[in-house]
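User: Need the bound-state model for flavin-adenine dinucleotide:
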Amino acid sequence: MTRITFENQTFETQTDETVLQTLLRNNQQIPYGCKAGACQCCLMQSLDNVPPLASQIGLKDSQQKQNYFLPCICTAENDMNVALPNTQTAWFESEVIEKKALSSNVILLKLKSAQPLAFFAGQFVNLRHGEVIRSYSIANIPNSNHELAFHIRVLPNGKFSRFVADELQVGMPLEFSHAQGNCHYVEGKSEQPLLLIGTGTGLAPLYGILCDALENHKHQGEIHLFHGSRDESGLYFENELRELENRHANFHYTPCLSAEGNDEKYAQGRVNQIALQQFQNLEKWRVYLCGQPEMVLQTKRLAYLQGASLQQIYADAFSS
Ligand SMILES: Cc1cc2nc3c(=O)[nH]c(=O)nc-3n(C[C@H](O)[C@H](O)[C@H](O)COP(=O)(O)OP(=O)(O)OC[C@H]3O[C@@H](n4cnc5c(N)ncnc54)[C@H](O)[C@@H]3O)c2cc1C
Ligand code: FES
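Assistant: Bound-state model below.
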């Protein structure tokens, strides 16, 4: 058992509890989003001990040196005295300019930022509604209208996604954070083949990356996108992707369905198995993986075993 001191109060941790869980269980007001080390909403500073290295993954060197850490992925090894950073996340204003259903449970949401934006398609921002903060990947390339597009999967009891489905309307304001994440197209090596594998709304960043590669950078190498879902209803962007395939000879789209009894015109089975079976030597490839965390983790390992270098594997796990 260890003790966490925050704003002059000390709390005991329970077995395997993260620092964030300890603080929230004791009714402390700590901002958080993904609870998985991705969004950095919960950033804190250790005022005494050096925090465990694993809780500093993804932070800048300068932040690591100042003992900043992510309490949602920090299991305290020693007693810690912690504080919220002085500089809170900057939030930017935007207005909803489009909201439409892409399928029975995926919504296309478009925002127009009040100011110019710097981002790479495929990165993610945090969206905020009151206390609820969630990460969403950017599915478009930067444009002069300062627009951001998202594919949002509506969960039956999801706090943020239900707000988007039930309450958010065109014309309403919505706050977002700066763009983060390394899962985006990287210029150079235009001949390199690209393998993109995604499940569900993991397609959102992959679609952004595709548009960036094909339309902004005129990528010359072959690009293969495998999109997986249980059944046909999850292939919510099929028409747009077929259209992109018609316009670019080097782009190939393979929709994959994992449930029994689906239309045989689609590849049958798990999306990662189908893709890795088709391309068994990934030595020269750049690989992008987005969506369900188990799929992302497993495919990262398998892609590495099939020859892809770790520097050439870009991954975003949609932990929720
Ligand atoms: C880097 C990153 C990028 C992301 N990008 C996207 C994106 O582009 N699009 C997108 O849709 N999401 C994305 N996510 C996930 C997103 O941030 C939210 O976690 C998700 O939308 C759920 O938020 P919520 O508030 O609606 O649900 P919450 O209130 O947070 O509830 C989530 C919980 O709902 C439960 N749940 C209830 N019903 C279901 C169900 N049918 N299936 C699964 N779980 C269920 C689960 O227990 C889950 O823990 C991303 C996450 C990360 C970390
Ligand atoms: S809540 Fe800790 S990083 Fe997202």
